[in-house]
Amino acid sequence: MEIISEIRRMKAVSRELKRENKTIGFVPTMGYLHEGHLSLVREAKRQAEVVVVSIFVNPIQFGPQEDFNRYPRDFKRDQSLLEEERVDYLFYPDVNEMYPRGYKTYVEVRDLQDRLCGKSRPGHFRGVSTVVLKLFNIIQPDVVFFGWKDAQQFLILKKMVDDLNLDTSIVALPIVRDDDGLALSSRNSYLNAEERKAALVLNSSLKEAVKMVESGERRADVIISRVKAMIENEPLARIDYVEIVELENLLSVKRIKGKALIALAVFVGKARLIDNIIVEV
Ligand code: AMP
């Protein structure tokens, strides 16, 4: 596995791979890798001839009060995990390489970026769209793999790819969970043992919502109230939002019909955790 930290070198590699007609699969990450990331890498290995993974903790997607500085990092461990997966290239630029002095250009996916997590993290998705478009331009991937854990992120990036006519297809893969149901996240490392237990309420309340839908409940407000009550019952958890939205536009639904996304964000200790599930009636 070649580790590349210069954009110029990464571009030269992509250009050469294109010339050889090799398909490039790409997995963007912020590192501190877990099985969720590795599930994306394995699918990339299945679908593409050459796999590039990036590790870049993108400062412009963090708010001023957020965890950019203490975001967990362990490059050596990540490197060996990716070597085990037989990844071909690890793109690992530093902040100055991606945003040199005087950097000015940003990408916005209007409306979608302002809903759900966008409400409590203003500017977050603008940072995500911008870095992902830069990475696409540098790596020129044929197919890119994202996790459904960040459902809003995926829907925004899909819109960006369509709207800007990018020559890349993007794929979302299922949420990988621990045995007890907690969605894997690099931010789970912020949790102590007690908080880790409390964090199970994200998944268990979503499961309760699914049960309600399965037993015939269609009223979004009734389901949301029940989910919120379960989370509020957990002293270490604090709700950011619980919403039931349409998949296309992320706007709230009154009654569930067809497919809907139940999404939530909850603070537990120092961690802001997200989870979601699709229901279909
Ligand atoms: P991150 O390093 O958190 O930016 O995540 C990089 C990619 O891994 C994103 O596409 C995430 O959606 C995906 N990912 C993170 N956690 C999980 C998970 N538990 N299951 C599946 N994909 C995940």
Count of DSSP strands: 9
Mean pLDDT: 98
C-alpha Rg (nearest Å): 19 Å
Structural class of the helices, strands and pairings? alpha/beta
Number of helices: 10
Instruction: Calculate the terminal CA-CA distance, rounded to whole Å.
Output: 46 Å
Characterise this structure.
By secondary structure, this protein is of the alpha/beta class. It has helices at residues 7-19, 35-47, 75-84, 95-98, 117-120, 124-139, 151-163, 193-198, 200-214, 220-232; strands at residues 2-4, 24-29, 50-55, 89-91, 143-147, 169-173, 237-245, 259-268, 271-280. Helix 6 crosses helix 7 (151-163) and helix 9 (200-214) packs antiparallel against helix 10 (220-232). The radius of gyration is 19 Å and the shape is globular. The relative contact order is 0.13. The model has no long low-confidence stretch (mean pLDDT 98). Residues 29-30, 36-37, 39-40, 146-147, 149-150, 175-176, 183-186 line the site of adenosine monophosphate (AMP).
Brief description of this entry?
By secondary structure, the protein is of the alpha/beta class.
How do the strands and helices of this protein lay out in sequence?
Layout: E1 2-4, H1 7-19, E2 24-29, H2 35-47, E3 50-55, H3 75-84, E4 89-91, H4 95-98, H5 117-120, H6 124-139, E5 143-147, H7 151-163, E6 169-173, H8 193-198, H9 200-214, H10 220-232, E7 237-245, E8 259-268, E9 271-280
Parallel strand pairs: 1-4, 2-3, 2-5, 3-4, 5-6
Antiparallel strand pairs: 7-8, 8-9
